[in-house]
Amino acid sequence: MLVENKGWMTAHEFNDLLALCQFLPGPNIVNLCAVFGARMRGIPGGLACLVGLLGPSVVLMIAAGAAYRRFGALPEMHGVLSGLAAAAAGAVIAAAVKMAEPLVRVRLGPEHSVALATFVAVGVLHLSLPLVLLVIVPVSIGFAWRRADAK
Amino acid sequence: MRSDPATLAALFLQFAVLSLFAVGGGGSAVPEMHRQTVEIARSLTDRQFSELFAIAQAAPGPNIMFVALLGHFIAGVPGAAIATVAMCGPSCILACAVAQVVERFRKARWRIAIQAGLVPVTIGLIAASALIIARGADRNWASLAITATTFAVVYWTRLSPLVVFACAALLGLVGFV
Q1: Which pTM does this prediction carry?
Q2: Per-residue pLDDT of chain A (151 residues; tens, 9 = 90+)
Q3: In Å, what is the CA distance from A51 to each residue of B11, B64, B77, B94, B122?
Q4: For chain B, percent of residues with pLDDT exceeding 90
Q5: What are the phi and psi torsion angles at B98 (to 5°)?
Q6: In this complex, do A54 and B87 lie within 8 Å of one another by their Cβ atoms?
Q7: Which residues of A touch B152 (CB under 8 A)?
Q8: What is the distance in angstroms between the Cα of B4 and the nearest Cα belonging to chain A?
Q9: How far is it, in rounded angstroms, from Cα A93 to Cα B126?
């Protein structure tokens, strides 16, 4: 929309911005939207974009949340929610597998250990995320730094 | 549901920290949200966590809006607003600040190393999210079958996941799960 309909950005600018927001922490699309708005019109522009992107969703979520509190425990809803939750699980597994694909194609190396260690520490052992990241991110960046050396 | 100032302050702090630790995107923060809200605070059950996550996925809008739903469940309307602001605010401020200076570092070796180093961590975190959501969602053969089917459809076809979500909800309605 920003590139094709409105011509507010070139495709190149958009891709650069997207890459930046995928690299930084936090929700990518939300970050992208804030940076875009801030570039166009400064801080008010950034805020306007965020309100536009998130406002309707927050209202929708509040309505959904209220409905969930009210009707979520009803026997009729039980099945619907079970079905939805099971489908959501499948969708996230698919996202995880898609992301992991590039790892399958390269030779076994430290990246595989890092991904596995993160998965076990956070998913199986349920350790604190900030704690795990403070240990594992520097290690992983160190490996990436050495890999860049080897090339 | 409690929306006293102490609960809201705690909620804000938790999500603000998560905002800056969600490497690679909001999805990476799901395991920590689960740890904080289900395991430590016991504000909701495994099952409720997975159900709310599913509702956010099925609804239009960014998937990160799960935080609004979670915030609402824990602390009502103020909770929804505060969780959203806390989850998006810090990372947006960081992104805007970095975007101002990043042009100069595009080819810098440390930037490339950081970016490459975060990729496997993100993969591990999304896999952990998948495990946690599946654990809360799958409790019998029928739900496992729905999970497997959704995986296959999302992974191998271009069909919108929403179609699968709708089918799954219908199957649930007629008592399949």
Answers
A1: 0.91
A2: 677 777 777 877 788 788 888 888 999 999 999 998 998 888 899 999 999 999 999 999 999 999 999 998 888 888 999 999 999 999 999 999 999 998 888 888 899 999 999 999 999 999 999 999 999 999 999 999 988 776 5
A3: 20, 14, 16, 18, 27
A4: 71
A5: -70, -40
A6: no
A7: 90
A8: 18
A9: 8
Q: From CA B127, how far away is CA A118, in angstroms rounded?
A: 9
Contact B54 A46 (CB under 8 A): no
The DSSP output letter for B26 is G
Helix (H, G, I), strand (E, B) or coil at A108: coil
Chain B residue numbers with beta carbons less than 8 Å from the beta carbon of A35 are 92, 95-96, 99
Which of B13, B98, B123 should we substitute to test contact with A (largest number of A Cβ atoms within 10 Å)?
Answer: B123
Residues 6+ apart with CB under 8 A from B12: B82, B83, B85, B86
Contact B23, B118 (CB under 8 A): yes
The contacts of residue A104 (CB under 8 Å, 6+ apart) are none
- Average pLDDT (B98-123) is 83
Which strand (E) or helix (H) includes residue A89? helix A75-105
> What are the backbone dihedrals phi and psi of residue B58, each rounded to the nearest 5 degrees, phi first?
-75, -25
